[in-house]
Amino acid sequence: MRRILREPIVHFGLLAIGLFIYFQAVAEPEPEAVDDGVIEISTAEARLLVEQYSQAWNRPPTREELDGLIQARIREEVLVREALALGLDNGDGVIRNRLRQKMQFLTDSAAQALTPQTQVLQAHLEANADRFERSGTLAFEQVMLGSNPTEGDVKSALSALRDGAEPLSMGTASMLPTEVPASAPVQIDGGFGRGFSKALMELPVGEWSGPVRSGFGIHLIRVSAAEPPRLPDLTEVEDKVLFDWRREQANALSAAQFKALLTAYEVETPSDDDLNTLVVQ
Fold it and tell me: Is 164 among the domain residues?
């Protein structure tokens, strides 16, 4: 028994039951049908109408306005009951989707109520490092040699730069910056073209290298600083980790809840032969 009680799915189930009971208790009161054909507007519902009106208009309604709200509520209830009696909800995708969303809301609310311990979030951070990893940065200088320099031009320019030539005196003029401060790969690629930063990550730091092709042409590069990607401390991304952890719990709870609810139904689907006739073989 103790082993069963430690199972996460049991915790999810108990939490879901508690949430369903809670939302049932705090849900907006509906007009009560004492028997068929009877609509009762309770004092509690009239109070709710007053609160809703006050929130919308920053003042309580007059008695005449409240009477109008009650009559509108009665009209709504009559039309809804008649629509249900006619089966107008059957096959209505909008209504079905709205009901599904409300059920999902209960599950998501259960996950949002969970408050994990710090070690749980730390474990989630480490297990999903790719979601939270901070991209590295690169700072570099570049000399553009045009779109199609000869191999000899590249070797000559590279040799001159390594011998101390002034970068501004080399290459061809362009609108690109000659010096780029420490920037994330996405920023570098935004200026020079996709994949440019990846090529720079393979270059040594502190010396002129290349050639490297961008979306504009051929460049010689001197990487001045490189900071590798890193997994941030939990304190830096705790809110993001908590959000992601709760999202995973909501998915797990939703799956466990559906599995539990499904046991109350006998599901019948077309046979394989019938389904095969509906698709292209």
Answer: yes
If 0-12 CB within 10 Å is exposed, 13-18 middle and 19+ buried, where does residue 69 land?
A: middle
End residue of a domain, out of 79, 114, 149: 114
How much is the CA Rg of the chain, to the nearest whole Å?
33
Per the structure, the count of domains in the chain is: 2
Whether residues 103 and 147 fall in one domain:
no
* Claim to verify: residue 211 and residue 149 sit in the same structural domain: yes
DSSP state of 178: S
Q: How confident is the model at residue 33 (pLDDT cuts 50, 70, 90)?
A: very low
The whole model's pTM is what? 0.54
Over residues 223-277, the pLDDT tens digits come to 999 888 889 989 889 999 999 999 998 888 888 888 888 888 887 877 888 878 8
Asked if residue 10 belongs to a domain, the reply is: yes
For residue 210, the enclosing domain spans 135-227
